[in-house]
Amino acid sequence: MGSLLLDALSKRYGASTAVERVDLDLRQGEMVALLGPSGCGKTTTLRMVAGFVPPSGGRVVIGGKDVTQAPPHARDTGMVFQSYALFPHMTVGQNVAFGLEMRRVNRADREARAREALRMVRLEGLDDRLPRQLSGGQQQRVALARALVVNPAVFLLDEPLSNLDAKLRGEVRMEIRALQQRLGLTTLIVTHDQEEALTMADRLVVMDRGRVRQVGTAEDLYERPADPFVAGFVGRCNLLEGRLEEQGRFRTASGALLPCAADAAPGGAAVLALRPELVAISPGGPARLRAVTYLGPQTEYHAELDGTPLVAICQTPGPADPLRRLSPGDGVSLSWDASTARLLPATPNDKGA
Amino acid sequence: MTLSPGRVAFGALVAAAFTLILAPVAMVMVISIFRQEIVSFPPSGFTLGWYVNAWARQEFARGFVTSAQVAAIATLIGVPLGTAAAYALVRGRPRGAGALNTLLLGPLAVPGVVAGTALYMFYLRAEFWLDRDITSTLEGLVAAHVLLTIPWTVRLVTASLQGMDLAAEEAAANLGARPFTVFRRVTVPAMRPGIIAACLFSFIQSFENLELSLLLVGPGRTTLPVAMLNYLEFRVDPTLAAVATVQILIVAALMLVTDRFVSIARTV
Questions:
Q1: ipTM score above 0.90
Q2: Distances (CA, A) of B45 to B36, B48, B236, B241, B251
Q3: Which positions fall inside the ABC transporter domain (chain A) (predicted)?
Q4: A102 touching B, CB under 8 A?
């Protein structure tokens, strides 16, 4: 009953394409995050699932039923909006019971279920308050309760945490994930925050300019990014343009010769992706240190090798470590396990973030 | 808190502004309860005689009833029209919405006497075509006053609509509400403060209007402000002050009652 299928879903506004043939299949109980920079089409995709945006092409199938043409009120989705969108003139209890009222549940059941939903989000006893009398975090939880109380087939979250402060965000994140798993909700969440996506979702969909770039688990995306965009968007990455000179040797555009994974065949233009935390640094060597940033547990080293900028992130060295005395201008050497330097296809206009 | 010279000066300015605005009103109220027929200072001899006199004079009592009638009917017609227009302008965003909006606010910009004269001439022409009375009828007067109510309504309801979170409507639809239910349960409540304020302002605008009504009233169907002006042409005595005081108190009472439902300071 709770599966969600997007089949070649597209949206065009005149000549511009907002969403280009998105295919996605969510199992019952799975949580999938649509991740991407603003304007990548993730929110439009979500709104097509909810029925607020009519698709230009493709299908939306919820629980085996094609709802592409169905109006929002006939779709059985429960959505949490970025602004929470609580009804300001109704009490918290009335807000939560609204969906049940629309489903003609009788008053007694309605009140009991609304109370139960409020208890689930730890807001028991606040039924009679008005939304404006609650804090942002509480309003957020009312919105969750309101969407969940009707047992929707698909749970939709549109940047649900972006209006909360950082500390609260972490808490609510865990809470939503726990609820989602406990209730077995098929969930689609939209976010531009990679940490949010990585910690909450079973699978992530990285989108850019209306297209899906890669679908996979957090591990897939981080360790096996399909292209420079994904590598740069999920986590930090040194993305170096150049070409493979021979097996295991990569020549950057500025001339540096770097070791890379040996499995790639020499070819045309490519991008070398190297996670900064996999780069080791030691004093003395051909590379020139440009900046050192102390971040507490970690220290970030910005260096340059034959005109190619490279970032290394290491555990902050102890006070006696010679690394501790490095300062900009010093010579350093950088090293990494060649198998971790992945070669990605270079596509025009695809610059890593 | 220290009283800097700047603060003192600002306070004095505010006090002066309020005095300037309220002094004439207070003056009218004071005059209405003293005996002197010629307005003089200091007043002496407390009396409620002018109120008795005002009530005894048929034209004021009848004018009051007519004004209240016209104001109520014009409000009942104008506010729904203005609300519908505001909704269409904000949500439908039709082509030429800006021009349409300016047109709807137009009656505020045209001097009342000019609009009144224009309407009078239009009514005469219409009477000729339709072969029935329009000037000096209740219908004619109400139609003219509807023009007064629409600009206020459009402005106030537009402000309410623009302040509302559109996602609330989507949330209602998402929870299973059909479009009309969304409108009734979410949109209308969001417009309510604007509508209530619009009713109040429309009623007051119509109730105290003089210029527009001047040429449109007829014998036996005179609004209160016109009756007062007529009286003033023949004599000046505190009877008018008594009538004006009643008028002021009614408007003040309306304001207070409305403010209990919607905060006027926040809506307007």
A1: no
A2: 8, 10, 18, 16, 28
A3: 4-234
A4: yes
